[in-house]
Amino acid sequence: METRHLQPSSIPPLSWQDILASLEEAVIVVDAEGKISFFNQAAEALTGLAAFQFQGRSYVELFRSDRWLLDIARVSLPPQQTAAQGEGELSTRRGPPAPVSLSVSPLVDPAGRSTGAILLLRDLTLRKEIEEDLRRSDRLAMLGTLAAGLAHEVKNPLGGIKGAAQLLKRDLPQVPEAHPYADVIVREADRLNLLIEQLLDLCRPVRLRLAPVNVHELLDDVLLLEQAAPHGATVAIKKRYDPSLPPVAGDRDQLTQVFLNLTRNALEALDGRGHLTVTTRMETDFHVREQGRERGSFIWVDIEDDGPGILADLLPHIFSPFFTTKNNGTGLGLATCYRIVREHGGLIRVDNRIGAGATFKVSLRVAE
Ligand SMILES: Nc1ncnc2c1ncn2[C@@H]1O[C@H](COP(=O)(O)OP(=O)(O)O)[C@@H](O)[C@H]1O
Ligand SMILES: [Mg+2]
After folding, report:
1. Which ligand gives the minimal distance to the CA of 323?
2. pLDDT per residue over 241-267, tens digit each?
3. How far is Cα 161 from Cα 217, in angstroms, rounded to an integer?
4. Which residues of the chain have pLDDT under 70?
5. Which end of the chain is more exposed for a tag (fewer CB within 10 A), N or C?
6. In angstroms, rounded to a whole number, what is the distance separating the alpha carbons of residues 171 and 268?
7. What sign has the CA pseudo-torsion 350, 351, 352, 358?
8. Which atom of ligand 1 is nearest to the CA of 266?
């Protein structure tokens, strides 16, 4: 029989190992007894385990904490030998469980005998984050319209209330005991007005004045300021800067606002005890370019604290305007950060460790 070459001879032949090593999907091959016979690089990255640690061991042992996965994988081996799919959370050695999709297929030899199964796992973290981002921006857009409308409605009567209180005080010189009440009204009206101004700020489109910004200088300024504040003085602040970091394209004032808010939140969470670590680094995950994200190089700034972290059921709400767990909080800090970072074409992410801290990560585009 004639051998047909599918590859033009100018392309060097690829080994199947090279192909599997380049895949973003985790590929795990097990033999008919369920022992692992192949584990590609993506599988190592996803599980946080080196291939040699699992070569020859049972897949049941590897995934013993993920029952859903074992249940699906089992059907691809004898006696059933059928393909199956599913989604679930995969426990990892390197951190919180990762959302993954799994698809399993039986492996058969030309005679139809089972020689094992192939498990394909895809990390869905990024997809979930993008979906959450979309939901969040939808929610913020809706809230923004609502809030802007309400703010305008409230601002006018508020001006009236304040004016009337000032008049009362002026026109009642003979009742000085009433004056403190008028002062309270004026003060509280001013406070409300400030809050509304902040809210309107959040809803107005920002006009960015982009210029190359030295991130380290900016962070140093922010940290200097916060270290002098009462809540910052007793916290150990560590800087882990990548000295080769290029300047980013940004609006310096707006970015200062972002990192002030994030640092202040971290320090408030630490409540005078613990560590704040600020790390800068180049983005290295070039192959996981997110959909809708423009091309270009990006840097990341991580603001990490070892405070209490965020309770799991509160996590979906922290970027919403007015969501706060603090007695004197406004709940506008993270909503503002989110908006400014998005306007810069960057991303903001949170790595939450319940009981052990939180890391807020901001990516920004490198200046041309
Ligand atoms: N580093 C952090 N650690 C723990 N919780 C945090 C952290 N940063 C933000 N949060 C939570 O997110 C909420 C919203 O933050 P933010 O929008 O800045 O508003 P505020 O600081 O006024 O409460 C906070 O009230 C807090 O519950
Ligand atoms: Mg805050």
Report:
1. 1
2. 999 999 999 999 999 999 999 999 999
3. 45
4. 1-12, 205-206, 285-295
5. N
6. 44
7. negative
8. 1
